[in-house]
Amino acid sequence: MFCNSCGAEINDQAIVCPKCGVATVKHPSNVVKEPVPHGVSALVCSIFGLVVPCAGMVLSIIGLCLSISGRNSVKSNPEKYGSTTMLTVALSLSIIGLVGSIVYLLLLILMWVGLVDLGLGLFDFYENLLNL
User: Fold this and answer.
1) How far apart are CA 13 and CA 25, in angstroms?
2) Which of 31, 42, 60, 114 could form a disulfide with 98 if both were Cys (CB 3.0 to 4.6 A apart)?
3) Which burial class, exposed, middle or buried, applies to 111 when counting CB atoms under 10 A from its CB (0-12, 13-18, 19+)?
4) Rounded distance, CA 113 to CA 92, Å?
5) d(CA 109, CA 3)
6) Burial class (CB in 10 A: 0-12, 13-18, 19+), 74
């Protein structure tokens, strides 16, 4: 690398030029980083895992796996990737979706067995749907 001020050849790791003392031009904040791996797909699976009751558990597990995989990739090479905010949001939504799906299925089973009656008519709806 060469000094922008005096033109002397300097080490690539130098912060200032040893000849003239002028700071080298390095802008690490301007370096374009790659988007985090699996960020968008983990977020999409997590959101659909929250709003789709039947497939929510599967989608939440997929979103959970993708966000963990993406976070591990970022941890192995942090200077290559940008912010992990999307993966953190996807991880949180996946956990919420997974817990919600488990509660939904348990409640559905308890209603089917007859131990719980919420008065919502959900069991009657499913029973009528199966009898069609």
Assistant:
1) 11
2) 60
3) middle
4) 32
5) 73
6) buried
What residue ranges of the chain have pLDDT lower than 50?
A: none
Q: Which residue shows structure tokens 């970022």?
A: 74
Cα separation, 45 vs 42, in Å, equals 5
- Ordered by start, the domain boundaries in the chain are 1-31, 39-105
pLDDT at 13: 79
Sign, CA dihedral 50-51-53-59, equals negative
pLDDT at residue 28, rounded to an integer: 53
The distance in angstroms from the start CA to the end CA of the chain is 77
Residue-wise pLDDT for 30-55, tens only, equals: 566 788 888 888 989 898 888 887 78
